[in-house]
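U., I forgot to send this yesterday:
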Amino acid sequence: MSEIEIPEALRYSLEDEWIRDDGDRVVIGITDYAQQQLGDIVFVELPEVGAIIDRGEAFGVIESVKAVSDLFAPITGKVLAVNDELAERPEAVNEDCYGDGWILAVSSSDPGEIQALLDVQAYRKHVDERAE
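Result:
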């Protein structure tokens, strides 16, 4: 497997989603490990703006040439924005999963949920354990 990028400034879920707390909103995407495991992404199904997502529950679907996988909410919140570009260019997730390939932005209803997620060291350990 090629080297996996795991940025320091983000928090991570056990289901391979990342979150970035931007203060007034939290941006969510899938990790480099997840996009490498999926392979070429061909479709992303996202919730409507205004929908409520619940921590641990599926909020969308990501489809690759290898598999169809649910996207799980790392935190509870109201959807403020979705990355509409993914409808036309789902491969943006493969190309820049921490940048242009972001998935959605939510308002966090419980800041404690963010702190409960994995930091970079814990997530790297989680990835390494599955790669063995």
